[in-house]
Amino acid sequence: GAVVSQHPSWVICKSGTSVKIECRSLDFQATTMFWYRQFPKQSLMLMATSNEGSKATYEQGVEKDKFLINHASLTLSTLTVTSAHPEDSSFYICSAHTSGIPYEQYFGPGTRLTVT
Amino acid sequence: KQEVTQIPAALSVPEGENLVLNCSFTDSAIYNLQWFRQDPGKGLTSLLLIQSSQREQTSGRLNASLDKSSGRSTLYIAASQPGDSATYLCAVYYNQGGKLIFGQGTELSVKP
What we know:
heterodimer, A: seven-stranded mixed beta sheet, four-stranded antiparallel beta sheet, B: globular
């Protein structure tokens, strides 16, 4: 099956700094990628949908100036958490789907962000 | 509102039992439904994908069914093993919206 990677797998940063998370589709071209966050014992919450070469579409309640998403190529999307605060600590997961039906999504292994 | 609901939230069974996890969704206009497994602190592992035109999919000891008219899917796990312990997530790709909607998950514990 298709493989999606994320880097880093975990990161610790100080409050006020910015952190970039990369999501790559390794063996297919992903015109659309998605970013989710997951709090402990909760399900995945979609943050934004990222289309290659265009601006991301953010879900209601997600601050687009805080969570910057760039999808510059068909195999790479990045999520930058700007001026991170402890409440941004979470598990961030990206996914990508191939174009057209069946729209099966392939998920990355996730990035654990801890803001101290 | 497009929602996905999973029942029960948690389930504990002895090893060897057959079990059923339930997923319901509010709109029958879907492209597909996926079942995932998530181990603690890990990402998602796709288990089964059922297209809207299909009724069920099988992989090893897992069988997933889909009934669009009633808005329900079940994941059947045969002869459960301790290694099946994980959280199981159901997600629906609705025609409207172009995104996966996840249920809250069922946390399964299989006791040896």
